Amino acid sequence: MKVLYAKESDQLSRWAADRFVEQLKKNPKSILGLATGSTPKKMYEYLGEDTRAGKVSFSQAKSYNLDEYVGLASDHPASYHYFMQEQLFSKVDFPEGANTLPNGVAEDLDKEALTYDRKIQEEGELDILILGIGSNAHIGFNEPNNVFEALTHVVELDESTRQDNSRFFEKIEDVPTHAISMGMRAIMQAKEVLLMAFGENKAEAIRDLVKGKVDPQVPASILQLHPNATILIDEGAASLLSEEDRESL
Ligand code: F6R
User: Fold this and answer.
1) Is 120 in contact with 189 (CB distance < 8 Å)?
2) What is the mean pLDDT of residues 82-106?
3) What is the rounded average pLDDT of the residues 78-107?
4) Is 224 helix (H, G, I), strand (E, B) or coil?
5) Quick one: how far is CA 25 from the chain centroid?
């Protein structure tokens, strides 16, 4: 696991966007794994600019997202479908039908989770996956637990996650209690994983991920076992690490 540091988060977003551009140049039919939330927004903005400038094309690529809230339809402004449409899909040239997210309003949610997992397995592996990290060290919505969940599953969100994400809703009661999340198998099988963390409220999670032991109570710590994972941290997120724990970008 490589830990890359830059003072400013924009430098890290640019670096991560460049990795996606290189991957798409190497294999235009790449299968991309995508995250939502505040962290990847700038990277998606860069990818939109690069597409407009003709530096990259998504015209043969496909994508799978990490998660979706249970109970929010794709046209709900706080849904991850909506977020992705706004932040990336409308800004780049994916073909119709190339973007898949779990359906949070499926009648049978467990079946939807397993179907989603099977779809990813049928693709083979994700070529490159971008992750954020929760302040409780979740990746996707794999919350701290006694076990690492292998498959896509329905998860009850931690109170801390609901608090953290309440900024996207009018009030805390509106934050869904459950989500469908990609499991650890698809994450660990991705050929390349980039995890970005910005700001001091991620510092403890980053310290535990980088310095702690592999422990399902620190879900992101599983990345210590990934053969090609890069952790990208800004000044705030790096504040509980020492200089020898990280390389400068
Ligand atoms: C989102 C996801 C989550 C977020 C994490 C950080 O699809 O899977 O793990 O990456 O909650 O969120 P932000 O970036 O908003 O701090």
Assistant:
1) no
2) 98
3) 98
4) helix
5) 21
The fold of the 2-248 domain, in CATH, is: Rossmann fold (3.40.50)
Task: Give pTM, 2 decimals.
Answer: 0.98
Q: Whose CA is nearest to atom 11 of ligand 1?
A: 134
Q: What is the average per-residue pLDDT within 47-71?
A: 98
Percent of the chain with pLDDT over 70: 100
Secondary element (H or E) of residue 109:
helix 109-123
Q: Which atom of ligand 1 is nearest to the CA of 67?
A: 7
Find out whether 206 and 241 touch, Cβ atoms under 8 Å.
yes
Is the CB–ligand 1 distance for residue 81 below 6 Å?
Answer: no
Mean pLDDT of 66-82: 98
What is the chain's mean pLDDT, rounded? 98
Tell me if 179 CB under 6 Å of ligand 1.
no
How many Cα atoms are found within 13 Å in the side-chain-facing hemisphere of 7? 0
> What are the tens digits of pLDDT across the range 157-200?
999 999 999 999 999 999 999 999 999 999 999 999 999 999 99
d(CA 146, CA 96): 40
Active site residues: 67, 136, 138, 143
3-state secondary structure of 77: coil
Q: Give me the residue spans of the domains in the chain.
A: 2-248
Please tell me the distance from the alpha carbon of residue 150 to that of residue 88, in angstroms, as a whole number: 28
